């Protein structure tokens, strides 16, 4: 319980007329720490998103709400400075969670502990599983139709936890639950662009699988623009994408895992969800009901095919672990 208490911070943001987004406001300790975790920068990015009409920020450790409600600006001035500014409100106490979630169309969950050097994402399970479970129970009750963007690790297990909780409340819709692995795509694109010597903005690099080690499988054979990379170079890029998170954890030497890049990736993903909900046709995979189309894997190289076979057992056992947690096994 003590650990659990230590960890809470995360928020739920939303938008109206249809949209709400939940963001974890993470920072160590203070409300406005410059070293702020995922939630704070993600909150800020979501605040700037014109599709967000209401942003509810929830964190049990206290929400950096003043950052977002612009405590220093009067409401008048605020509407002048940010004409599209959503209504932003912070919620901190357990009993406010329902209020935060009510009416939300999108809920983003970056609540929970991040890794320290030497830890795998699975090492976070003990603490984060309980956090995710309780948040999902509240979602099932207060906004069962929301699109849920799960950032909390281990994503490979927290997504099945969410699914099982929703099933047990009779509100599960596989089209509306997402594990956010966009950061793996951001990394794959960045590393590929560096190696291929092309502009990262022009790169498309699909990534399949889950979000931990070998379960992250970039499909560089389908990356564009095409580059003549050797097998060795592809292997090195694959490994670096798979280990990207660990690289950050080690570089931060005990001060957590990726935060700003995750906020960026989380904002991209949430934006795609918001566009889908608004019926923007450009986002062909997401629509008014969440997922509209599950794309096939496309042609895989032999190396990727081997990677796919290799990731299945780990992914399966992480999924089973999440399911067992909810059912008390
Ligand atoms: P952090 O420790 O800076 O922030 C976590 C926040 O969650 C804290 O403010 C804490 O008070 C809050 N929290 C804990 N329990 C809560 C609850 N029940 N309700 C509301 N808020 C609660 O951690 P950071 O760096 O922001 O990371 C958050 C999570 O995101 C970690 O699990 C981390 O592993 C994961 N992550 C996921 C990535 C991905 O690609 N999906 C990438 C990077 C991190």
From TrEMBL:
Keywords: NAD, Oxidoreductase, Signal, Tricarboxylic acid cycle. Residues 33-179 form the Lactate/malate dehydrogenase N-terminal domain. Its EC number is 1.1.1.37. Residues 181-284 form the Lactate/malate dehydrogenase C-terminal domain. It is an enzyme of class 1 (oxidoreductase). It comes from the Eukaryota. Coiled coil: none annotated. Belongs to the LDH/MDH superfamily. MDH type 1 family. Homodimer. This is malate dehydrogenase. It comes from Rehmannia glutinosa (Chinese foxglove).
